[in-house]
Predict the structure of MFS transporter.
Amino acid sequence: MTQTAAAPGTLPHPPPPPRTARVHRAWFVAAVTFVTIIGAAGFASLPGLLIEPLHEEFGWSHGTIGVAVSVNMALYGITAPFAAALMDRFGIRRVVAVALTVIAGGAVATVRMTEPWQLVLCWGLLVGLGSGSMALAFAATVTGRWFTARRGLVTGILTAAGASGQLVFLPLLAWLVDRHGWRPATVTVAVAALAVVPFVWLLLRDHPADVGLAPYGGTYAPRPAPAPGAARRALKVLVGAARTGPFWLLAGTFAICGASTNGLVRTHFVPAAHDHGMPVTAAAGLLAVIGVFDVVGTIASGWFTDRYESRRLLAVYYALRGVSLLFLPILLAPSVRPPLVFFIVFYGLDWVATVPPTIALCREHYGDDGAIVFGWVLASHQIGAAVVAFLGGLARDLTGSYDVVWYASGALCAMAALMAMVIRRRPGRSSLAGV
């Protein structure tokens, strides 16, 4: 086809601009990440449901079972910063696919266990390492690479995926444990994790440049070369961050966050409610309701993080959480009553609302290393969770009640609120992530 010559004295028509997709590819990557986190979330739902069945079948104490849960949570956190560095070195989808496979293998192996050390090995070690590679550092890495605008909102959505997975799995798992025992429930979450692997491998991409795009709201940049020495880089980032005050304040507040959520409520709420005569299925249903409102609260927190100062948001979240925990011991009863429902809704809105502003502060203070720094901060979150998962079970064995643990956690949350306000703003950087 020949092109018609332009008339004398006129300029030729410019070529039409290239067509662009109406929906940026980053949103599809975020969707795959969301589904992946949901697929792995069933493992976070199980510990609280397994304590009583394992205690009844094997005669293991609450403290003994709590050791395995503590190892799981500690490794979940310690692995996270190395996983973020491994994603820089080998790519997101390779690390996540291997992690899901390890999780499923460790969970299935628990079906044949007969001794406590086997629970520590399979559930504590294998599932802990695998889930650590699927930790929130995964969400931080995806948002850091694929989004320049709306980072806070997307972080909130991906953080809420864990709660959505809890919502999807918890009622089903509680029903399976109640009707068929804990083994079918364990196999169910293993199968769910494996089912996500093909989606990760086929649909997830490591970097916008892999498909010739710029990050959402940003400018195009070539894919950086793989960073060698993932472990060395993770440790180097830790050493550098540990020389700064904000790191220790963020790590301390997030340790309390983990202690008051995963370590306490997720692990011990069901057995604590059962101590007051509430059926396990009813207590598990309440945890699922926490998951419903956690989705709302975390997405809202991401929206707030794009607009308000992160440290003030953290102070408010921790203060409200601490107050709510102080009331919980008087709310537990054989049946579900309106005051307990109010606590569940309130606590759900605050469950992991702390994550978007914490990630934003890591990014604000540590720039390109923010995801790895957040991995180390997440390690403190899980160590806090691990300590309380063990101490909560030990307190139950020694006192016959969880009351002292609820009160202590409420006091710790008040301390976290004060620590958040001490975090200084970084000169020359805005605390409004993603704007």
The mean pLDDT is 81. The two ends are 47 Å apart (CA to CA).
